[in-house]
From TrEMBL:
Annotated ranges, domain Ion transport: 39-330, 439-676, 780-1057
Bilayer topology annotation: Multi-pass membrane protein
Entry protein name: Voltage-dependent L-type calcium channel subunit alpha
Annotated family: Belongs to the calcium channel alpha-1 subunit (TC 1.A.1.11) family.
Gene Ontology MF terms in the entry: high voltage-gated calcium channel activity; metal ion binding
Transmembrane segments: 40-59, 79-100, 112-130, 164-189, 264-285, 297-319, 440-456, 476-496, 570-589, 647-669, 781-799, 819-840, 898-927, 1023-1050, 1093-1112
Location of this chain's protein in the cell: Membrane
A single GO cellular-component term on record: voltage-gated calcium channel complex
């Protein structure tokens, strides 16, 4: 078949003149244009960029700006990169022009970035060569780390994702202004309330010694932290009664004075830390200890709710909207591309038809000659058989005839045998194909995969030798079975058809790698670790069960459709991490050993690999504030310009955590919404899509027999009929229902619930006057609102009970109120049972789940009143169940009930996501067991490496002070979270997925050495890839799928009440606005003086003036600082 012709591309238009002097025909410019359009030149620049990135990564920063031979060579190599990139810039400027005309070099944003990097590189080089004093050339050289960004301009897939993010910058700028406004307001409030409050600690009045090893805040308020002897754990401190709470010059405050509200800069930094939810509770408790605990919690709780839960989540909404628009644009471009390809195919088909017509005419002219040639050929063949072939007459015609007959008989026998073998082979292949496509074979493979999973799960630390032998034999057994399965499928389906399925290609890779692993281990070429983790990849074969699980198959399809966008995003995220890691090395390399009395933090920027891990840790948000504190301290703390380096961490955290990582969630929401639309499509369309999807699977669907072909055709016809029928029904509905509706119908307001037709409690009919009277009572707004108020008040009184003194006077009073509210709730339920009936008929009271909750809460209260004894455990449990009382408000508040219903629907249908997440985490757990079992042990004496050596006692020094020796007993202990078996590995990985404390587990794994041996510093740095891969797959992607699924469910549930409405969401909002809109009335006074005042206060000038005054007032409030006479450094 002839290959498809490529679409014609329009030639690039060049400006007539470049740099005001070089025309298009100029030889120099033509040469530059040829170079820029030469593909090897682009590859050369990409190679130089990658080489520059490698050189920056290999660079080793040292303390006190020291250097070595390697760094000197790399600095000299920098000149080569500058020359190459400068030459590239000059060539492109000559080819494209500089600035003045369209299409010039600086008219492209990526070229502007390249130009800035080149200019800064030249300036920094010149300044370093002429030794300019009083100028930090190293700070200017830090811009070299932006060179990896040039990769984006040469990789189209990265440009797509980055352009989508850049398009969201304008709405994100509005959200950023809102976030800045919230942070500024709360910072000013904190400045007014807590300025100078976080500097007091408990000290000795005689010598100024701290009362605690780690000083903490204290205060003089009644509920603040007091310096009492009973508050100190040390016996020496408890005997001393001279501790007072006062400011101390040697203690700057929490985190060396970084966390406080002493000026607007530090206050905004502290507020931003609280908004990030990292360490905000510590700040709240420090403030409580300083000023009391009665009211500061209001400040921090409202800050977290408003700033973190609400405002920052608007970023997700913006990114999700932008990606939805990008998807629609991509779909439109795809349709247009298909239309162009269809036109081109029609042109090609027309040419083929013309060629076929001409060929038929030529064939008719040559028919007679062909028939004559055939007869002549037959005669010649016959004469050849009967006559002499040899001119010498050695063999006469009779002998030749006998020999020819014998040859014919032998050849015919071989042909018969060959045809028999072919028929036998076809029968065998047909039988094998039916077998491998049968459900029995399919479930047999699934059972084998599950058995293989059980064998892998049984591996654990300290297992018996017989289990080792069993696992080895079982592994060989499963390798043989899966190899036989692969060969059987290849034989029955054919190699090409077998490789059409992605699952088959994956199975082939796993089987071949397992065979290679077994051979290498058997001949002792390698240890049975390393490649053995590929065994765990077999567990992914469990996803084959999606063949007969439609909903799970739809989810897997949605996840796979997200991979394209996710891979591009991961490349951009990796580039982002590399740039900030290189920048961190330039700014903080060799500086985190600022305190000789403390060990250097593990999260540092001294090497490229460690810098990558530190940046990734900040991206996850775990202890990012601690790394920032260390960075500030490395530059002298708050007493110098060290606070300026916090900008690096803030920008990294905002761009990484709030923008790039939210793109994961935006992609998940977008793809889940698209998948949900497919699932909610018409049945015929859905069936057709499923059949087409199954046909493309290849392993089970390719090469189907006639039965499958009939199924495909039947499904397609049914789908067409159903689509057509649905279309006609929709059109009929539009014609019939195209009348204006009331606004109440559009807003979904429901009418009063009718009384069921059945009799209530077998006594009261639906026309009974007493039943109608009760119905009017329970549906009256006064009654409903009164019950809601009683629920809220009773819930508040439950919270006001004293749990420590059950017989207190306060609890006695609250008990009487509890009787009152229980009576009201009992009357309410009785009235509703009278109106709706109890349970037996449709619409009765107990047929509603929320009503069952009401009955449970009231029944618990009544039973607890009857059983008075608090000593009975059942009564205690029943009284605890009273905490369900606030849930009764759900049934009374429509919006809250809608939210709960959405959550219930999401929980019901979230099982597939939980299953996929569990299987992926289970696979990572098995890999973790194979990598880390028995390696998380350590001795508290670092000099002892084994359990046999970790005995006796050793001498250590308190706080690293040689004058304070302490004797301690050696203890061989295992880390709290470890991978010694699959269950503990699952728990450890769950902790990692929450981001809480995962760096500690990471560094324990990096230091892990061998089984039953103690840790060695950075013994296995490559194992960090395991944790990073797990976080990306589970925490970044699958956890966001949970959130995205809930968001999509909320959207669908919100639209469910309008599913029978012919109008879409935008049309409904337009009609609602038109019905609810009222003309805006403006009062214009008639008095001349009042009119002038009115004109002035409504003018734009007046609004701007008030805005300026507000800004000046805000600035004035922000100028407050502590101590009053000090200079504000931040």
């Amino acid at each position: 078949m002839q290959s498809r012709k490529p679409l014609r591309q329009t030639p690039v238009e060049r400006n007539e003149r470049s740099l005001l002097c070089l025309t298009v025909q100029n030889p120099l410019r033509r040469a530059c244009i040829s170079i820029t359009e030469w593909r090897p030149f682009e590859w050369l620049i990409l190679m130089m960029i990658c080489a520059n990135c490698i050189a920056l990564a290999v660079y080793q920063p040292y303390p006190m700006q020291d250097s070595d031979t390697k760094n000197t060579v790399l600095e000299n190599l920098e000149y080569l990169f500058i020359v190459v990139f400068t030459a590239e810039c000059i060539i492109k400027v000559i080819a494209l022009g500089f600035l003045l005309h369209p299409g010039a070099y600086l008219r492209n944003a990526w070229n502007i970035l390249d130009f800035i990097i080149v200019v800064i590189g030249i300036i920094s080089t010149v300044l370093s060569r002429i030794n300019v004093q009083a100028f930090d050339v190293k700070a200017l050289r830090a811009f070299r780390v932006l060179r990896p960004l040039r990769l984006v301009s040469n990789v189209p897939s990265l440009q797509v994702v980055l352009n989508a993010i850049l398009r969201a910058m304008i709405p994100l700028l509005h959200i950023a202004m809102l976030v800045l406004f919230v942070i500024l307001i709360y910072a000013i409030i904190g400045l007014e309330l807590f300025c100078g409050k976080l500097h007091s600690t408990c000290v000795d009045t005689s010598n100024g010694e701290f009362a605690q090893k780690e000083p903490s805040t204290c205060g003089l308020a009644p509920s603040a932290y007091h310096c009492e002897p009973s508050s100190f754990s040390s016996a020496i401190h408890a005997r001393n009664n001279k501790w007072i709470c006062s400011p101390n010059t040697t203690w700057l405050g929490p985190n060396n004075g970084i966390t406080n509200f002493d000026n607007i800069g530090l206050a905004m930094l502290t507020v931003f830390q609280c908004v990030s939810l990292e360490g905000w509770t510590d700040v709240m408790y420090w403030v409580n200890d300083a000023v009391g605990r009665e009211w500061p919690w209001i400040y921090f709780v409202t800050l977290v709710i408003l700033g973190s839960f609400f405002v920052l989540n608007l970023v997700l909404g913006v990114l999700s909207g932008e990606f939805s628009k990008e998807r629609e644009k991509a779909n439109a471009r795809g349709l247009f591309q298909k239309f162009r390809e269809k036109q081109q195919l029609e042109e090609d088909l027309k040419g083929y038809l013309d060629w076929i017509t001409q060929a038929e005419d030529i064939e008719q002219l040559n028919d007679d000659d062909e028939h004559g040639g055939d007869e002549h050929l037959v005669g010649g063949v016959g004469g050849g058989i009967g006559g002499d072939l040899d001119g010498d007459g050695v063999l006469d015609g009779e002998e030749q005839g006998v020999e020819g007959e014998e040859k014919q008989q032998r050849s015919s026998a071989l042909i018969v045998q060959w045809r028999f073998l072919q028929r036998l082979n076809r029968r065998c292949r047909r039988g094998c194909r039916r077998m491998v496509k049968s459900q029995m074979f399919y479930w047999l493979v699934i059972v084998l995969v599950f058995l293989n999973t059980l064998v892998l799960t049984s591996e654990h630390y300290g297992q018996e030798p017989w289990l080792d032998h069993f696992q080895t034999g079982a592994n060989l057994f499963f390798v043989i079975l899966f190899t036989m399965e692969m060969l059987l499928k290849m034989y029955s389906l054919g190699l090409l058809q077998y490789m059409n399925s992605q699952f088959n290609r994956f199975d082939c890779f796993i089987v071949i790698s397992s065979i290679i692993e077994f051979v290498l281990v058997y001949f002792e070429f390698m240890k049975p670790l390393g490649i053995s983790v590929l065994r765990s990849a077999r567990l992914l074969r469990i996803f084959k069960v999606t063949k007969y699980w439609a909903s799970l198959s739809q989810l897997i399809t949605s996840l796979l459709s997200s991979l394209r966008s996710i891979i591009s995003l991961l490349l951009l995220l990796f580039l982002f991490i590399v740039i900030f890691a290189l920048l961190g090395m330039q700014v903080f390399g060799g500086r985190f050993n600022y305190d000789p009395m403390r060990p250097k933090p593990r999260a540092n920027f001294d090497t490229f690999t460690q810098s990558l891990l530190t940046v990734f840790q900040i991206l996850t948000g775990e202890d990012w504030n601690t790394v920032m504190y260390n960075g500030i301290e490395s530059y002298g703390g708050i007493g110098s310009l060290g606070m300026l380096v916090s900008i690096y961490f803030i920008v990294l955290f905002i761009c990484g955590n709030y923008i790039l990582l939210n793109v994961f969630l935006a992609i998940a929401v977008d793809n889940l919404a698209e998948a949900d639309q497919v699932m909610n499509a018409k049945p015929g369309e859905e069936d057709e899509m499923e059949v087409e999807g199954e046909y493309e699977e290849g392993e089970y669907e390719h090469g189907e027999t006639d039965e499958d072909g009939l199924d495909l055709e039947g499904d397609g016809e049914d789908g067409d009929d159903e689509v057509g029928g649905d279309g006609e029904e929709v059109n009929d509905e539009v014609v019939v229902g195209a009348r204006p509706r009331r606004a109440s119908h559009l807003t979904g307001q429901s009418k009063q619930k009718p009384i069921p037709k059945a009799s209530s409690l077998f006594l009261l009919s639906h026309t009974n006057p007493f039943r109608l009277f009760c119905n009017r009572i329970i549906n009256h707004s006064y009654f409903t609102n009164s019950v809601l108020i009683c629920i809220l008040v009773s819930s508040a009184m439950l919270a006001a009970e004293d749990p420590l003194q059950a017989q207190s006077y306060r609890n006695t009073i609250l008990n009487y109120f509890d009787y009152f509210f229980t009576t009201i709730f009992t009357v309410e339920i009785t009235l509703k049972v009278i109106v709706y009936g109890l349970v037996l008929h449709k619409g009765s009271f107990c047929r509603n789940a929320f009503n069952l909750l009401d009955i449970l809460v009231v029944a618990v209260s009544l039973i607890s009143f009857v059983l008075k004894s608090d000593a009975i455990s059942v009564v205690k449990i029943l009284r605890v169940l009273r905490v369900l009382r606030p849930l009764r408000a759900i049934n009374r508040a429509k919006g809250l009930k809608h939210v709960v219903q959405c959550v219930i629907v999401a929980v019901k249908t979230i099982g597939n996501i939980m299953l996929v997440t569990f299987m992926l985490q289970f696979m990572f757990a098995i890999i973790g067991v194979q990598l880390f079992k028995g390696t998380f042990f350590s001795c508290n004496d670092p000099s002892r490496m084994t359990e046999m050596e970790c005995r006796g006692e050793f001498i250590t020094f308190e706080d690293g002070d040689p004058t304070k020796p302490v004797s301690m007993k050696r203890v061989w202990q295992r880390a709290d979270f470890h991978f010694d078996n699959v269950m503990d590995a699952m728990i450890s990985l769950f902790v990692v997925s929450t981001f809480e404390g995962w760096p500690d587990l990471l560094y324990v794994a990096i230091n892990s050495n061998e089984e039953d041996r103690g840790p060695v510093y950075n013994a296995r740095q490559p194992v960090a890839i395991f944790f990073i891969a797990f976080i990306v797959v589970i925490a970044f992607f699958m956890m966001n799928i949970f959130v995205g699924f809930v968001i999509v469910t909320f959207q669908n549930e919100g639209e469910r009440e309008y599913e029978n409405c012919e109008l879409d969401k935008n049309q409904r909002k337009c009609i609602e606005f038109a019905l609810k809109a009222k003309p805006h009335r403006r009062y214009i006074p008639r008095n001349r003086f009042q009119y002038r005042v009115w004109w002035f206060v409504t003018s734009q000038f007046f609004e701007y003036a008030i805005f300026i005054i507000i800004m000046l007032n805000t600035t004035t409030l922000a100028l407050k600082h502590y101590p009053p006479g000090a200079l504000i450094l931040f």
